[in-house]
Specification:
Radius of gyration of chain B: 22 Å
Structural class of chain B: mainly alpha
CATH superfamily of chain B: MetI-like
CATH architecture of chain A: Orthogonal Bundle
Structural class of chain A: mainly alpha
Chains: A mainly alpha (about 325), B mainly alpha (about 280), C alpha+beta (about 525)
Number of strands of chain B: 0
Number of helices of chain A: 15
Shape of chain B: globular
Shape of chain A: globular
Oligomer: heterotrimer
Number of domains of chain B: 1
Distance between the termini of chain A: 9 Å
CATH topology of chain B: MetI-like fold
Chain lengths: ~325, ~280, ~525
C-alpha cells in the first residue's frame, strides 16, 4: 500500500507538470494577450507595444514558461501581469475560502446524500424513496445561479435570516464565516445532492440481485440489515468515485455560485485572469485545481481498494 | 399495460408518459406552435393571456412557442452528447480496468489532466480552434463529460475485473472486447443506467452554459437551459417567465429518472424483497 | 412609460426639476433627496457601494483604468485637473483657472494652491507636469490618444503651466476631465501605496473583492465635499445579486441597474432610483465601409432603415433609452445636430436601398456578444426580425465575450459595439470617425470630414463651431457605417438614506464621485 501511494504521488507530480505545460500552451493558443485584454477597447498599437515590453512578453514563449517553472520549483508563483500583485498572497486566502466553502457544503451534502441514498434503497419504491429522488432531481434541473436566486429571495429577502452577500474575510471567526456562507453552502448542497444520492441508491440496488444477497435474505435478515451490512460495502466503488467527482466539483466548479454570492474564492480569480490573459495567475490557479483533482482521485482509488480486498492482489 | 413483459408500476408509467410527451413535442410540436419562434408578439415578460398562454419572454416572444421549438434542440443535443460521452467513457474506462498496468496509468492520468484544465479554458480553446457549430458543441460536451464517465466506468470495471468469472474468461484467452461486452458491461449496467439518466439532464444545462459562450445553439433558436438563463432576472420580482422552461427541464428530468428507476428495479429484483408496488 | 421617449427635448439631461416632474408624471419612485440638497450635509457613516465594472486584475495605476470600479476608487483617492460640472461644462478641480491664447493653440493653467497629498506634500506645477506626461509619448495609457495633440508642457511658475498644442483645440479643458488623468506627486511610481489629493486614503485594496478607503484627517480641500467617514466598495458583478443586496440593505448604492427590471426595483420602499437620460452607452452595430458588401452606401442605408429602434428600446430597454441617430453624439450633448432628421424604421426604404445595392445574395452576418454590451443578442434578434419585414436575411452569430475587443471588434465586417459618453462632441467624434483614429471601427475615411472637425476644434466662435459639428454629424449619419440605434440611460440605485445623489451628464453614480459628493440623512 505504501509503495502504491508513493507511486501515485510521483505520478501526481508528473500530472501536475503535464497540466502546467498544457495550460500554458492553451493560453498561447487563445487569441489576444494580457496587454490587449487589459487595455481592451482603449488599446492602440503603440500603447500595446509599450505594455508588452514592460511585462517581458516580447520574450519567446518557451523561455517565459521555463522561467515560470523555475520560479515555482523555488516556491515562487510570481506576480500578476495585470496589476503586479504577488500571486501567492492573493491566491492563498482565496484558496482557503474555496476549501472552506467546499468542506462546508460537503459536510452537509455527503452524509445527507449517502444516508438518504441508503434509506431510499432500503425503502425502494416507497414514498421516502420517491420524495427524496424527485426533490433532489428538481434542484438540479435549474442552473445553479437560479437555485441561488431562489434561496436569496426566500432566506435573505423574505425571511431575512441570512445575508445574500457572502463576502468572508480573514478577520472573521469561524462562527461568523459559517453564518455568512450558509446560503452558498446550501446552494452547493442542493446542486450536488442528486448525483450522490442516486448513485448510492442505485449501486446498492444493483447488488441486491446477486446470489449472496439472496442468501442473506434467506437467512431471514431484515432488508435494512442486508442493505447496510451486505450490499453497501460491495457497492462502495462507484459511490466513492461519484463522491470524489462531486467533491472536486465543489472545489473547482463553483465560480457561478461565488459570483452570485460575491464569495471571494479561487474560481472568480481564475475567470478574471482568463479574461485578462494573466498567464501566471491562470497557471497558479490551474496547478492548485489540478492538485485537488489528483489528490481526490488518488484517495478515491485507495478507498475503493480498501473496500474491495481483491483489488489489492493485482498490483 | 405491459412493456417487455413487465407491468410498469404507476411511477414508471408517469415517467413513460412524460418522456413520450416531450419526444412527441420535439418531433411534431413546431407544426402546432402558435407563433414563429423568433417573432416578438408582446411586451417584455407579458403575463399569460388568451393569446399567449404562458406569457412572453425577455423580448416579447411567445413563451409556449419557444418551449415547443426548444424541445427539439434541447432533447436532441442532450441525447446525442450523452450517448457519445458514454460510448467513449465506458469503452476507455473498462479497457483501463481490464488491462490495468500501464494502460490504466496512462488513461487515468490523461483523464486527470483533462479534468484539471478548467472547463472555461477548454471551451474557449475549442471555440477558437474549431469554430462554433452544433457538432462542435456535441463533441465538446461529449469529451468533457466522458472523463467523468471514465472515472465511474473504471471504478465499476475494477470491481468486476477481479471477480472469478472474469479471471476465468481471461485464462480462457478471451479478447478484451469480448470480456468487456459479455462479462463486465452486463454486470455494471445498473449504475451506468443511473448515471446516464442524470448526465442526460446535466447536459441540458451544460448546453445552455456553452451556448452562452458562443458555442453551438445560436439565436434565435431556443434551448430550455438558455431560456432559463435569459429570463432569470425576472424571478427576483416574482415573474414566472423563467419558471416555465425550468419546469419543462425538471419534469423531463424526473420523468427520465422514473423510467430509469423502473429499469433498475427489473434488473435488481431480489426474491426476498418486499417492496413491490 | 411609453411616452418616455417623446419627452426628449433638445439639449441637456434631465435636470432636477424635470426629474421630479418626470417622476411624478411617470409614477416612478424617484428620489426626493436631490430636492432637499439645500439641507446641510451631515458628516459620518461608511458608504457601502456595490458595483459592477471591474475584476481581480484591477490595478491602482490610472493608466490601466477602463471600467467603473477603478474610475470610482481613482476619484476617491486622487483628483483630476478638471471635472465636468452638472451643466456638462468643464469646471476647475486641481486647476483653479485656465486661459486660451487666441487660436487655442497655447493654454495657461493655474494650479490650485495649498492642496496637500496624503503624504503631506503640497501640490505644485511639477506634480501636474509629471502626471500629464505619464499619458504622453511611450506609454501604455488609455488616454494616450486624447493627449496626442499636446506638443509641449512647460512650467511658468510654481503653480502655473503652459500647454502647447500642435493645432488649436478649444475643448482642451474637458480632455483633462478624463478618468485616466489623475494628478500624482512628482516622480511617483509605487502604485501599491497611493498618494493623492482626494478626500479618502486607501485602507484595503483587494481587487475583485473590495476596496476600502477612509476619510483623511483634517479638512478636505473641497469645503462642500467628503462627508463619509469611509467607503467600502464591493465588486458585485451579478446584476440580480446587486439589486437584492440593495433592497435588503446590505449595500447603500448600486450601479448599472438592469433596465428590464428597474421599474420593479422602484417599488421597493427603501430604494431610490436615479436615472440619467440618454447619456449612457451608445449601442451600435458597425459595418466596415471598405469591406463588401458594406462598401455600397445603399447597403449601409438598408442596414440603417431596416432596424426598428423603438421596438428595441421598448422590449430590450423597457423605455430606459433614447433613440440613436447613427452617430455617437447624444441629444444631451452640446453641439448635437438637432436638424439632422431622426432616421425612422422604414422596411420599404430598406428594401429599396438593398435592391439598389444590387447584392441580393450577399451574406449579411452580424456578430454579437454579451461581452460587447449586455442585451446585444436580444437587440440583434429583434433587428433580424425587423430586417425580415424588408425581405433582407440577416444572420446573427453569437460569439464569446472573451477577447471580444481584441478578436472581433475592428476585425469582423459587421459587429456590435458600445461607445461611452465623452465630455465633448469633439472627443466623441474624433475618437471614432477621424480617418486616422485608432478606433475607427467603421473604416470610414473622409478627408472632408477630417477637415471640418479640425476646423471646428480651433474655432472659438460658438455658433460657427456648432455649425461645423452639425455638418460632421450629418455626413456620418448619411454616409457612415455605424447603425447607432439607442443611447442607454444611466440607472443607479440608492438607499433612501443616501443624500446628494443626482443625475450627472458625464457618468453614472454622480459622475462616479458619489463617495465625495454624497452624505447620509
Amino acid at each position: 500500500m505504501l509503495r502504491l501511494i508513493a507511486t501515485r504521488f510521483a505520478l501526481g507530480l508528473l500530472t501536475l507538470l503535464a497540466v502546467s505545460v498544457l495550460i500554458f500552451i492553451c493560453t498561447q493558443i487563445l487569441p489576444g494577450d494580457v496587454a490587449s485584454a487589459v487595455l481592451g477597447q482603449q488599446a492602440t498599437p503603440e500603447s500595446l507595444k509599450v505594455f508588452r515590453a514592460e511585462l517581458g512578453l516580447d520574450k519567446p514563449a518557451y523561455l517565459r514558461y521555463l522561467q515560470w517553472l523555475l520560479g515555482v520549483l523555488h516556491g515562487d508563483f510570481g506576480k500578476s501581469l495585470t496589476n503586479g500583485r504577488v500571486i501567492i498572497d492573493e491566491l492563498a486566502p482565496r484558496f482557503i475560502n474555496t476549501l472552506f466553502l467546499a468542506s462546508y457544503a460537503a459536510v452537509i451534502a455527503v452524509p445527507l446524500a449517502v444516508g438518504l441514498g441508503i434509506l431510499s434503497a432500503i425503502r425502494e419504491g416507497r414514498l421516502t424513496d420517491r420524495l427524496a429522488n424527485i426533490l433532489t432531481l428538481i434542484a438540479i434541473s435549474v442552473p445553479e445561479f437560479f437555485v441561488a436566486y431562489i434561496l436569496i429571495i426566500v432566506f435573505a429577502i423574505k425571511l431575512a435570516w441570512f445575508p445574500s452577500l457572502a463576502t468572508v474575510d480573514s478577520d472573521m471567526g469561524l462562527g461568523m464565516r459559517t453564518y455568512v456562507a450558509f446560503l452558498p453552502a446550501l446552494t452547493l448542497t442542493l446542486v450536488v445532492m442528486a448525483h450522490m444520492l442516486r448513485m448510492t441508491r442505485n449501486s446498492v440496488l444493483s447488488i441486491m440481485s446477486t446470489p449472496y444477497i439472496e442468501m442473506a435474505f434467506l437467512k431471514g435478515l431484515t432488508r435494512s440489515r442486508v442493505v447496510a451490512w451486505h450490499a453497501l460495502p460491495n457497492a462502495l466503488g462507484p459511490i466513492v468515485s461519484v463522491v470524489a467527482l462531486n467533491l472536486a466539483y465543489l472545489v473547482v466548479g463553483v465560480v457561478v455560485v461565488e459570483n452570485v454570492f460575491v464569495y471571494p474564492g479561487v474560481g472568480q480569480y481564475m475567470v478574471d485572469a482568463v479574461a485578462k490573459r494573466d498567464v501566471p495567475v491562470i497557471q497558479a490557479c490551474g496547478l492548485v485545481f489540478a492538485a485537488v483533482f489528483v489528490t481526490l482521485n488518488t484517495v478515491a482509488d485507495i478507498l475503493a481498494m480498501l473496500a474491495n480486498p481483491r483489488l489489492r492482489r493485482r498490483r | 399495460m405491459t412493456i417487455f413483459g413487465h407491468r410498469p408500476p404507476l411511477t414508471a408509467r408517469i415517467g413513460l408518459i412524460v418522456v413520450a410527451f416531450y419526444l412527441l413535442v420535439a418531433l411534431i410540436g413546431p407544426w402546432f406552435a402558435p407563433y414563429a419562434q423568433s417573432q416578438s408578439v408582446g411586451d417584455t415578460w407579458a403575463p399569460s393571456s388568451a393569446q399567449m398562454w404562458l406569457g412572453a419572454d425577455q423580448i416579447g416572444r411567445d413563451m409556449l412557442t419557444r418551449l415547443i421549438y426548444g424541445a427539439r434542440t434541447t432533447i436532441g443535443i442532450a441525447a446525442a452528447t450523452t450517448v457519445l460521452s458514454f460510448f467513449i467513457g465506458i469503452t476507455l474506462g473498462f479497457t483501463a480496468a481490464v488491462l490495468a498496468g500501464w494502460v490504466d496509468v496512462v488513461l487515468s492520468r490523461l483523464v486527470d489532466v483533462i479534468l484539471s484544465i478548467p472547463q472555461l479554458i477548454l471551451a474557449l480553446i475549442i471555440l477558437g480552434v474549431f469554430g462554433s457549430s452544433i457538432p462542435v458543441l456535441i463533441f465538446t460536451i461529449a469529451i468533457i463529460d466522458s472523463t467523468k464517465v471514465f472515472r465511474l466506468a473504471r471504478a465499476l470495471g475494477m470491481n468486476l475485473a477481479v471477480l472469478d468469472y472474469v479471471e476465468v474468461a481471461r485464462m480462457r484467452g478471451e479478447g478484451l472486447w469480448w470480456i468487456i461486452r459479455s462479462e463486465i458491461l452486463p454486470n455494471a449496467m445498473a449504475p451506468l443506467i443511473s448515471e446516464f439518466g442524470l448526465r442526460f439532464c446535466f447536459n441540458f444545462l451544460f448546453v445552455a452554459a456553452l451556448s452562452f459562450l458562443g458555442i453551438g445553439v445560436q439565436p434565435p433558436f431556443a434551448d430550455w437551459g438558455g431560456m432559463v438563463r435569459e429570463n432569470s432576472a425576472a424571478i427576483n420580482f416574482g415573474l414566472f417567465a423563467p419558471l416555465y422552461p425550468a419546469i419543462a427541464i425538471a419534469s423531463l428530468t424526473v420523468g427520465v429518472n422514473l423510467v430509469v428507476d423502473w429499469l433498475l428495479s427489473i434488473d435488481a429484483r431480489p426474491s426476498g424483497s418486499q417492496a413491490e408496488m | 412609460m411609453d411616452h418616455s421617449n417623446d419627452k426628449r427635448g433638445s439639449g441637456l439631461i434631465v435636470d432636477r426639476r424635470e426629474l421630479m416632474a418626470g417622476a411624478a408624471a411617470l409614477g416612478l419612485g424617484f428620489s426626493a433627496s436631490s430636492a432637499r440638497a439645500a439641507d446641510a450635509p451631515k458628516k459620518g457613516g461608511t458608504l457601502r457601494l456595490g458595483m459592477e465594472g471591474g475584476s481581480a486584475s484591477d490595478s491602482l495605476d490610472p493608466r490601466t483604468y477602463a471600467d467603473s470600479i477603478p474610475i470610482s476608487y481613482g476619484w476617491q483617492l486622487w483628483n483630476g485637473l478638471v471635472e465636468i460640472g452638472p451643466d456638462n461644462n468643464p469646471v476647475g478641480e486641481l486647476a483653479e483657472s485656465w486661459e486660451a491664447k487666441p487660436g487655442a493653440k497655447e493654454w495657461v493653467f493655474n494650479i490650485r494652491k495649498g492642496v496637500p497629498f496624503t503624504s503631506g506634500k503640497i501640490l505644485d506645477a511639477d506634480d501636474v507636469i509629471y502626471s500629464l506626461n505619464m499619458h504622453r509619448g511611450e506609454t501604455k495609457s488609455g488616454a494616450k490618444d486624447l493627449m496626442a495633440g499636446i506638443s509641449d508642457i512647460k512650467k511658468l511658475g510654481s503653480h502655473q503651466i503652459l500647454i502647447t498644442l500642435s493645432s488649436g483645440d478649444a475643448g482642451l479643458p474637458s480632455i483633462f476631465a478624463d478618468y485616466h488623468i489623475l494628478i500624482v506627486p512628482n516622480n511617483f511610481t509605487d502604485w501599491s501605496k497611493p498618494d493623492g489629493t482626494g478626500a479618502f486614503e486607501l485602507v484595503t485594496f483587494e481587487p475583485g473583492v473590495r476596496v476600502v478607503t477612509k476619510r483623511k484627517k483634517g479638512d478636505y480641500w473641497k469645503k462642500d465635499r467628503g462627508h463619509f467617514d469611509g467607503v467600502e466598495l464591493r465588486y458585485i458583478p451579478d446584476a440580480a445579486a446587486r439589486v437584492q443586496a440593495l433592497i435588503s440593505g446590505q449595500i447603500d448604492a448600486a450601479n448599472r441597474l438592469d433596465a428590464k427590471t428597474v421599474s420593479l426595483v422602484m417599488k421597493a420602499p427603501t430604494v431610490n432610483v436615479v436615472r440619467t437620460k440618454g447619456t449612457g452607452n451608445r449601442f451600435a452595430w458597425v459595418a466596415l465601409c471598405d469591406t463588401d458588401p458594406y462598401q455600397s452606401n445603399d447597403m449601409r442605408l438598408a442596414l440603417k432603415y431596416g432596424i426598428d429602434r423603438q421596438k428595441i428600446i421598448d422590449n430590450v430597454y423597457k423605455g430606459f433609452a433614447t433613440l440613436g441617430n447613427d452617430t455617437t453624439v447624444a441629444p444631451s450633448q452640446k453641439y448635437f445636430a438637432k436638424d439632422v432628421p431622426q432616421r425612422p424604421y422604414d422596411p420599404d426604404k430598406a428594401a429599396f436601398h438593398f435592391k439598389k445595392a444590387g447584392m441580393a445574395d450577399a451574406k449579411i452576418e452580424l456578430q454579437v456578444s454579451e461581452g460587447a454590451f449586455s442585451g446585444a443578442t436580444d437587440c440583434a434578434v429583434l433587428y433580424q426580425e425587423a430586417m425580415k419585414k424588408a425581405g433582407i436575411t440577416l444572420d446573427v452569430k453569437r460569439v464569446s465575450g472573451d477577447g471580444y475587443w481584441s478578436n472581433v471588434w475592428l476585425k469582423a465586417p459587421f459587429c456590435a459595439v458600445y461607445w461611452g459618453g465623452r465630455p465633448s462632441a469633439d472627443n466623441q467624434l474624433a475618437q471614432t470617425f477621424l480617418s486616422n483614429a485608432n478606433w475607427n471601427d467603421t473604416h470610414w475615411r473622409r478627408p472632408e470630414f477630417d477637415k471640418r472637425l479640425l476646423e471646428a476644434r480651433a474655432e472659438l466662435d460658438d455658433a460657427k463651431r456648432g455649425q461645423l459639428y452639425a455638418e460632421c454629424q450629418k455626413m456620418i449619419s448619411e454616409d457612415g457605417g455605424m447603425v447607432c440605434f439607442a443611447i442607454g440611460d444611466y440607472l443607479d440605485g440608492y438607499s433612501k438614506k443616501v443624500m446628494g445623489a443626482a443625475p450627472h451628464p458625464h457618468y453614472d453614480m454622480c459622475d462616479q464621485r458619489v463617495a465625495e459628493k454624497g452624505w447620509f440623512a
